[in-house]
TrEMBL record:
Domain of life: Bacteria
Gene Ontology molecular function: lipid binding
NCBIfam families: DegV (TIGR00762)
Taxon lineage: Bacteria, Bacillati, Bacillota, Bacilli, Bacillales
Listed name of the protein: DegV family protein
Length: 280
């Protein structure tokens, strides 16, 4: 059985890994006024953070269902029997549902849509795992079952400098956004039941980053190998420094650097920092 792997642009998987594992990527859109950019195709994170310095904050939109249909039909024509389509949390985007709907509109190929219930490179971890298993010929239903098993080990925590972006975009409740205006609090956020919610209120950026590292430690010290990603919103040097510190603390964790790209960056704002991890 030939199984194709699809994900969307918010996984922020490096191009070389997409190519290596033959992962197909559907882009979400970033809209500056009348200009529509396909994330990770027409606009990358460095350009995005330059653009927002001189323009009004953009809006974002999910991929058209027709884009999914076109890709799934092409994969069927190329001889694929199944598709595993892995997407950002359905609690913050309709992208996953678009994949589900498109899957009912194509013939000759079985589409298995997977809600990662998260985003960024932790979502990417799912896609990379699925691609590796598919390359070994594993049945797509077994791959989906393995991805579901991994969910119990997947976590992501992040902080933002300004909660107003999340509040405006409807990704965080108005009442919850108030916590960011009190005494310069740096609220830690995470995903619960597919939605972004506050985790803890912390006074400073440094303490927030230490708290995230401690949360990783609680999992990593339980044994086994983990993969983790330090995720930044245009704070690459800071992310690299933090990664170096973390590698010294947790030798059983394989760290990489990721980023909040244009779509997620629109809702978090520049300066956001986070980390996600999953058992290997």
């Amino acid at each position: 059985m030939k199984t194709a792997i699809v994900t969307d642009s918010t996984a922020y998987i490096p191009t070389e890994l997409l190519d290596k594992w033959n992962i197909h990527m559907i882009p979400l859109n970033v809209i500056f006024g009348n200009e529509v950019y396909r994330e990770e195709v027409d606009i990358h994170w460095q350009q995005f953070y330059e653009e927002v310095k001189t323009k009004d904050l953009p809006t974002t939109s999910q991929p058209p269902i027709g884009q999914f249909v076109e890709l799934f039909e092409r994969l069927a024509a190329e001889g694929c029997d199944a598709v595993i389509s892995i997407h950002l949390s359905s609690g913050i985007s309709g992208t996953y549902q678009g994949s589900v709907t498109a899957g009912t509109m194509v013939e000759g190929i079985k589409v298995y849509s997977f809600d990662s219930e998260i985003s960024c490179m932790v979502q990417g971890f799912y896609a990379l795992e699925a691609a590796e298993w598919a390359s070994r010929g594993m049945d797509p239903q077994r791959i989906i079952a393995r991805l579901e098993e991994l969910k119990s080990t997947a976590h992501a925590y992040f902080m933002v400098d300004d909660l107003s972006h999340l509040q405006r975009g409807g990704r965080l409740s108005g009442a919850a956004a108030l916590i960011g205006s009190l005494l310069q609090v740096k609220p830690l956020l995470h995903f619960v039941d597919k939605a972004i919610v506050p985790f803890e209120k912390i006074r400073t950026r440094k303490k927030a980053m230490k708290r995230i590292a401690d949360l990783l430690g609680e999992d990593a010290m339980g044994g086994g190998r983990y993969q983790a990603v330090v995720i930044h919103a245009n704070r690459e040097e800071e992310a690299l420094g933090w990664k170096k510190e973390l590698e010294a603390l947790y030798p059983n964790v394989d760290f990489t650097i990721g980023y909040f790209g244009a779509v997620i960056g629109t809702h978090l704002g520049e300066g956001a920092m986070g980390m996600g991890w999953m058992k290997k």
